[in-house]
Amino acid sequence: MLGIDIGGTGGRAALEPLSGAFGAERVLLDGPPVAITSGGSSALAVTGSLIEEARAALQVRWPDGRIAAVAIGATGVASLVTNPAASLAALSEAAGGSPVALAIDAVTAHLGALAGEPGAVVAVGTGAIALGTDLHEVWRRVGGWGHLYDDRGSGAWIGIEGLKAAIQTHDGITTDASALLSAAESRFGPAPSWPAQLYTRDDRGSVLAGFAADVAGLAAVGDPVAARIMSDAGTLVARTLAAALDPALPRRAAGIGGVFAAGGEFTAAFTAEFARLAPDASLVVGRATPLGGAVRLARLVAAGEVPAGHPPFLWL
């Protein structure tokens, strides 16, 4: 199987024998992050290059092997790719004629976190999106609309909030974000250069999410403004997840993604707010990453257990 995860901070692929246990003998590959231009998302171009790399890796590791199925989870595929279904034939051809499943990243995040069980999952990396689903009848999406007006609590959102606080201290409106200003200047240079650096970039979301690491680091050592931003992010992510708890689904939920690694104020606020909003729901530990979810989807496709697609979430 070939599972592919395309996100704002990079592309990842995993080759895994169909006959082995989930996660056994997995070969990992890396690709570039998604770029967003006037023509839309580069997610499918990144996917194509990873398929080529995977086929080369397959011949090295398993010379007599072939790709039985491909599953792709990609950010923005429903919103920023014109007619995703039209790309399936080309992707299948690139993979040697294998069946292909293309999904929004929330689907593969869900399959990774809950291993196919019904419930709600929020994935928080560069962006933030939640999906409540049983993978058959119920499909409830919340968030994931991009960093300009959504992705509440995501890496890009945290980066933006950090820069907003920093520029206010730079301008003399506040005096409490000097640590964030110093961190931003260390990463991006003098404040007057920030607009030219950020507004013109195709990978703006991932660059903003990169600054989130600085915000989280300052929060961890007690900076009050950074700590407030991380706490607010956790609260917003909890609200996104709670909104994805469809009444037709079990009250089971999980949160996964790189931002959860920050811990501290983010995790504390997330846990507290989710418990307040959904006191009867169980918050479980995610079992696998979105990349693991893509591999799991590839296994389902290879076994013929995904009988039909469900646009705009999943295309076969």
List the helices and strands and how they pair.
Layout: E1 2-7, E2 10-15, E3 27-31, E4 36-37, E5 40-41, H1 43-61, E6 70-74, H2 77-80, H3 88-94, E7 100-104, H4 105-114, E8 119-124, E9 128-133, E10 139-143, H5 155-170, H6 178-188, H7 194-198, H8 204-220, H9 224-243, E11 252-256, H10 264-277, E12 282-284, H11 290-302, E13 314-315
Parallel strand pairs: 1-6, 6-7, 8-11, 11-12
Antiparallel strand pairs: 1-2, 2-3, 4-5, 7-13, 8-9, 9-10
Helix pairs in contact: 4-11, 5-6, 5-8, 5-9, 6-8, 8-9, 9-10
Description:
This protein has 316 residues and is an alpha/beta fold. The chain folds into 2 domains: 140 residues, Nucleotidyltransferase, domain 5 (2-Layer Sandwich), CATH 3.30.420; 171 residues, ATPase, nucleotide binding domain (Nucleotidyltransferase, domain 5), CATH 3.30.420. 43% of the residues lie in helices and 18% in strands. It is built from 11 helices and 13 strands. The strands form 3 sheets. A 6-stranded mixed β-sheet has the order 3-2-1-6-7-13. Strand 11, helix 10 and strand 12 form a beta-alpha-beta unit. The longest helix is centred in the last third of the chain and has 20 residues. The chain is globular, with a radius of gyration of 20 Å. InterPro entries: ATPase_BadF, ATPase_NBD, Euk-type_GlcNAc_Kinase. One of its GO terms (molecular function) is kinase activity. Keywords: Kinase, Transferase. This is N-acetylglucosamine kinase.
